[in-house]
Amino acid sequence: MGLREWIALPELGMVGLRAKIDTGASTSTLHASDIVPFEKKGKQWVRFTAHLGTLVQRRHRCEAQVVSVKTIKSSNGQAQTRYVIRTLLALGDRTWPIEFTLACRKTMRYRVLLGSKALVQAQLVVNPALTYVQEKPTLSLPGAQ
Questions:
Q1: How far apart are CA 86 and CA 70, in angstroms?
Q2: Which end of the chain is more exposed for a tag (fewer CB within 10 A), N or C?
Q3: Max intra-chain CA distance, the chain
């Protein structure tokens, strides 16, 4: 795979996301705002707004079960507490579950960062000289006809 790839998050209803592959980051991160925790059937969940696109901002309202809450040290050295969710990632012709931390990435060029844990799970190899090697995912969204 290349340094940047098209992905989809079908369980969250999102397709056509550009992701930056960051082998130096352990965790994957999804740009989110308006994060509100709530309880559903005795489990902890979050509602949040996912932000898509760089030139044209699109917002997508999501809900996901919380896997954990982690303290993450960002690239600028600041520690931040983040909710962690698990959802399916579609990349090329592969789909597998990964964990994302939810964080504000509005100052970052890419709204999605794929860390090394996600790559190891799928046994993917990155060639940083390439970009958009994989085809755009064409999975149908849950409930789509």
A1: 13
A2: C
A3: 47
